[in-house]
Design a protein that fits this description.
two-stranded antiparallel sheet; alpha+beta; 7-stranded antiparallel sheet; about 190 residues
Length: about 190
């Protein structure tokens, strides 16, 4: 079945093999640069996430691919769908903003007014999944509110069910290694 490919591979030699590995590495590096570039442009550590649970049904279902942005200084409003991560938790959570509060700093001047911080930068949020009966305070691991630094981004768009590939690769690690191995093999034995 692969006898012709093996003969062609032997004929091309070691130098061709190294060139193909270099081409494969450049494809992987280009993908990583694109990911990091999108993250910089959209101001988020993860511009694309996959919904892993049914807590946001019917808005989003398990396996939906979400596109995020996190513009600095922009306020989050009640009803916005956010993705956040609590320190110590490795999986980000996709939930809707239930309530927001602005942070004020006591400021003692002649008027006795409080100083409001710049809009959006110091905002507290309470979230809840659309399919959950209670808010997320139990998920916050001792925090009463989410701070802006916990937010990864605001959902701007989605593709339904595309993320099931990621879910399958996380549920079955052998599939991930088989897929990567197959792609690597194809890159090495390709003649162009």
């Amino acid at each position: 079945m692969f006898s012709d490919e093996l003969k062609a591979f032997r004929r091309l030699g070691f130098r061709h093999f190294l060139l193909q590995i270099l081409n494969f590495a450049s494809v992987i590096a280009s993908g990583l640069m694109l990911w990091k570039g999108l993250g910089l442009i959209l101001n988020t550590e993860s511009p694309i996430v996959v919904v892993l649970s049914g807590s946001m049904e019917p808005a989003f279902y398990r396996g939906d691919l979400l596109f995020l942005t996190n513009p600095p200084g922009q306020r989050y409003h009640t009803g916005d769908i956010t993705v956040y991560r609590i320190p110590g938790a490795e999986i980000p959570i996709v939930h809707r903003v239930l309530e927001t509060r602005d942070v004020f700093i006591p400021f003692d001047n002649s008027t006795g007014n409080r100083l409001k911080l710049p809009p959006g930068e110091h905002q507290l949020m309470l979230t809840k999944g659309d399919n959950n009966h209670v808010d997320d305070i139990d998920l916050y691991q001792g925090l009463e509110w989410l701070d802006r630094r916990h937010i990864i981004g605001k959902v701007r768009g989605f593709l339904p069910y595309i993320g099931y590939v990621t879910i399958a690769m996380n549920d079955f690690p052998q599939l991930k290694y088989a897929l990567l191995g197959g792609l690597g093999l194809l890159a090495v034995i390709q003649r162009e």
